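SEVERITY: medium
COMPONENT: batch folding queue
REPORTER: lab tech (J.R.)

DESCRIPTION
The queue accepted two submissions in a row. Attaching both inputs and their returned structure tokens so the on-call engineer can compare them side by side.

ATTACHMENT 1
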Amino acid sequence: MPAWLWSAASLASIVIRVAFGIAVFAVALKPKEGFAGRLLAALAVAMAAVLLISWQATAMPATPIEAAGAGGYLLQFLAFSALLVGSVAVVRFLSDAGIWACLFCCSCGYALQNLASGASELIWVLALGTGPETETGRRMLFGPYTLLNFIISAILYLAVWYFFVRKSDAEGLAGVSNPAMILMMAVVILMVIGFDLVIKSLSAGGISVGYVVALRAVHGFICIFTVLMEYELLINRRLEAERDTARHVLAERQRQYLTSRQTMDAINMRMHDIRHKVFRTLSDAGTELGEETAQELLREVSVYDAVVHTGNEALDTVLSEKRLVCQDKGITLSCIADGAALGFMAGEDIYVLMGAALDEAIAASAAVTDAHRRSISVVCRRAMGTVSVHIELWGKTDFADNAIPLVAKRYGGTLSCATGEDKSRIDLLFEEPEEDAK
């Protein structure tokens, strides 16, 4: 086999393992339109680059020992670093993800490939030792060392994908926008790639097996640390974004509470005056209404009757507001609530918590086809040093609004949801503060 062709096959083997390592993470990204054509174009460019580099270099040494001195080491370091940078461009070309997500996938994938390569190297050294005499098996194109590399890579790639990557979503990875990815890229280039080449050089030069084991353990730790740190950056950024969103939602609902409270007060006063004025006018005029007209008039002025009085202004506001919504949708909302039991909570939080839970319940109840089953029951009470809130309805809902657990957690509460064949319920339990329990 011509030297340049052997070199091309050897280099292609490395590129393939790097590509699959990156693909373990990049598979979660959203592909661009015309992905198949783009992938074929990227493969064609990669193949041409491999052939060109191999032709120019005449032969690609399997280990740095054949690359004379520091010049050979630097050449390989630059070549593998260029491969990493080129991988970022390819992932950007194939996916709709931003540059930060591409840096994340490529640096993680490259570290993963180096971890697999280091593990293969360690097994090889433990089995055959170090020195130039052990290099024959490495230089066989489809020999045991190449086969070992692919087997270890496949096992490690599948394990990482199963336990970590498959739990990630495209939205989460595409949302990566942390400039710290540049620092992690530098770590991969300097520590992962550079250190790996140093170890291979020392191993090929005949360094003690014990030293190789120690160095490979450090290199493996660096690879694992790099991947975990990048995931930590990803998770922290997502948590920060979720917290910002939650704060925005809570602030908006708290503002809505103040508006609703003012609106309900105004409506109550107005409807109270209208109700008495209408009936006083009819009574003074001696007008007799037909039954149908009287019922319609009562319905129009019954808004005042929707007002709930529990002993807690915030709870009164949200229950009254939701009762009006229920009336409009033909839903019966029944309440047995000791509003004073929730006195340890801020009014805005009561409005957000109960409003979110009742919105979910109303949406589910409105979807029930049997009009007689469109009902929601709310029970709030205190007992044995605890305060409980129970909401039950006909219909199916999982009470998925994020505001519910956020507010519950703020006051050290616990929540449980259950959905049966026809009914759904949510239970919130809080420990009553000592000053309220007295």
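ATTACHMENT 2
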Amino acid sequence: MQINIKKLLLLPVYTESGTRLGKVGDVVLDIDNHSVWHYVVHSGGLMSKDTYLVRPIQVKSITSEKMVVEESVTKEPAKEKSLPTTNPAKSLGNIMSREDN
């Protein structure tokens, strides 16, 4: 299956047990290996917003309707700024927003 970035962004994310984590807000790419480094998932509303960094190995399935991830993703919310320092990565969401302007 293939999915374009515009459909991937804002895709709802659930754990295997059905707990909703949030929506895909960004995708960070490893440009050396031409692969996904992690998906950035935002949850919460206006008052509280957690960010989860989901590695591809933690993704169980992606359809046009939703992304399903391992239960372990819910255990440690991470800050979006924790990008790899030794691995050059680019944020696909940032690239897309610059192209739209």
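NOTES FROM REPORTER
DSSP finds two helices and seven strands in the chain.
No errors were logged for either attachment.
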